[in-house]
Write a structure and sequence with these properties.
Structural class: alpha+beta
Strand order of the largest sheet: 10-9-8-11-12
Radius of gyration: 32 Å
Helix content: 40-55%
Distance between the termini: 45 Å
CATH architecture of one domain: 2-Layer Sandwich
CATH topology of one domain: Nucleotidyltransferase, domain 5
CATH superfamily of one domain: YqgF/RNase H-like domain
Length: 538
């Protein structure tokens, strides 16, 4: 079972229904803000006394109050994220301190040598110190908030809240008094705060929800929404209002949830086009259709595309694909559309091959955290717009719907192995080579280096004890040196094959002859023998 949310738009609403939904949202929002101010903002947990008091004050039922209380899960989210924010702030302070010390040493050296860059270095040092003080102040503030247990939360978005200080720049002519609603900014601010409400479901209730029930009558879906008592007094409507609704997405899953008696929650949201409904429930996962014994499909997720390689049961690539996913410079909705189209192509490939999809367990949180420490603006833009986590979420969700198995593997050295071991061999790009490594790793293939690339260790015992990734660790730490080394070896092998010099025939125990070249390889300050085969692959 997995939790899913489907959305649809309410159409053909009457003025009375519009007024009822708006009144419901206003009461819900006010009660939610009041509960937060009296409890969570002061570090107090709500009690039964709060529940009875809020029911009588705002005219709510017990289930409607529970829906308000469940919405305070954002408070727990803020507390959990605060730990990560504190860690990020500490790292920024540490990086700023290192930068200040480095600039101080440089400034001291420039003054001693009377270099022409003294003023420029002093200017940089001044602003780095200012930056350090700012970061230290933010860290102290976050630590104080964590110690007090209090949470700051802005209902209505901080962007719109700060717009009141620059009205003309944000397209407003006036502000509006606090107790009046005729000001442009005040009207938008209040409307944005009172734009949504939640109806909490439970599996112990009829149709999975007491406050809102979905029914199908003569092939048409209808929502029966229970209004708060305070809204009934304001509008004079009946206790329930009937809303015709269409289910373009998830109709089968929602109908199955109703038959099983699962809990179904409804969130009503008003936007520029009208009201939308988000229906959340648990759905049953589809039966797995993929066969692991046939191979796997490796996916290397990059900032601009998905590198996809299909592998057979022996670990060899048989198909390769490039799926464009250009998210840089696009809005949130545009990114989701691009990601959805790309994942749709990936799902089609997996369904045709009937093989599981293999992904890397990557975390871009730290990379995004260190963006300001990196001076490459193109890299910063790429990482900040790289919706890696969202791509992973969409892939796993669609695979769950279509019965495709998804595996996660360790991402260590996949790019280095794919580039140096498989790219040239199979005519793949470095990213496609990494995708092949990802697929092979799901079936526990040991990615040892090619025999012509691997250098001899100091002692045979040490070589036996080394992990299979030890060579690739060296390659990743010194990519330029190893790339130069490999190119020289290829040139030497080509020369040996053409001229027949500096080589000899050696017969192995199986009777197969290999060409072996013996050269001297300089590693650091030590000259060591390097042995490799002319025929490059195992």
């Amino acid at each position: 079972m997995t939790h899913r949310t489907y959305q649809t738009r309410l159409k053909s609403l009457t003025s009375e229904t519009e007024a009822a939904l708006s009144s419901y949202a206003a009461i819900f929002s006010k009660a939610e803000r009041t509960l937060f101010a009296q409890t969570f903002a002061q570090g107090i947990r709500p009690t039964q006394v709060h529940k009875s008091g809020f029911q009588s004050r705002f005219g709510l039922t017990a289930r409607q109050y529970n829906a308000i209380l469940s919405g305070q899960g954002k408070v727990e989210s803020i507390k959990e994220l605060r730990k990560e924010h504190i860690q990020a702030a500490r790292e920024r302070v540490k990086n700023a301190e290192k930068a200040v010390k480095s600039l101080e040493r440089r400034l001291k050296a420039d003054r001693k040598t009377k270099a022409a860059t003294v003023d420029k270095t002093a200017f940089k040092l001044h602003h780095k110190k200012r930056r350090l003080v700012t970061q230290q102040h933010r860290l102290e503030k976050k630590l104080a908030e964590q110690a007090s247990g209090k949470v700051s939360l802005c209902f209505g978005s901080r962007k719109l809240f700060h717009a009141q200080y620059n009205l003309e720049e944000n397209g407003y002519k006036n502000h509006g008094e606090w107790k009046q609603n005729h000001g442009e900014w005040k009207r938008d601010w209040q409307s944005y705060r009172d734009r949504q409400f939640l109806v909490l479901g439970s599996k112990d209730e009829t149709s999975g929800c007491q406050g809102c029930q979905l029914k199908r009558i003569e092939g048409q879906w209808f929502l029966y929404l229970r209004l708060p008592n305070s809204v009934l007094e304001q509008t004079g409507l009946n206790k329930h209002i009937v809303l015709p609704i269409e289910l373009p997405f998830g109709e089968v899953a929602i109908e199955q949830a109703l038959q099983r008696g699962n809990a179904i929650s409804y969130r009503f949201l008003r936007d520029k086009k009208g009201w939308r409904v988000f229906i959340s429930t648990e759905v049953k996962a589809s039966k797995i259709k993929t066969i692991e014994a046939q191979g796997a499909i490796g996916v290397d997720i990059n900032a601009h595309h998905l590198a996809v390689v299909e592998m057979d049961r022996n670990g060899n690539p048989i198909n390769k694909h490039r799926i464009n996913v250009q998210t840089c410079g696009k809005s949130t909705h545009q990114r989701m559309a691009v990601i959805g189209d790309a994942v749709k192509q990936l799902i089609a490939i997996a369904l045709t091959a009937r093989k599981p999809i293999v992904l890397e367990e990557l975390d871009f949180t730290r990379k995004k955290r260190d963006l300001k420490a990196n001076e490459d603006r193109r890299y910063n833009r790429m990482i900040s717009s790289f919706a890696y986590r969202k791509i992973i979420e969409v892939i796993k969700a669609r695979c769950l719907d279509h019965g495709i198995e998804v595996k996660d593997v360790n991402p260590a050295y996949t790019s280095q192995i794919g580039k140096h071991k498989f790219s040239e061999r199979y005519g793949l790009t470095p990213h496609q080579g990494a995708a092949l490594v990802i697929a092979r790793r799901s079936q526990n293939y040991r990615e040892q280096p090619n025999r012509e690339d691997q250098t001899a260790s100091w002692l045979p015992v040490r070589k036996v004890q080394e992990h299979v990734w030890s060579y690739w660790r060296k390659v990743s730490r010194q990519p330029v040196a190893y790339a130069t080394l490999l190119s020289k070896r290829k040139q030497s092998r080509s020369a040996a094959q053409s001229e027949g010099t500096d080589s000899k025939m050696v017969s192995n125990t199986s009777g197969v002859s290999d060409w072996v070249l013996i050269r001297s390889l300089t590693v650091g300050n030590t000259v060591r023998p390097a042995i490799w085969n002319i025929f490059p692959y195992n």
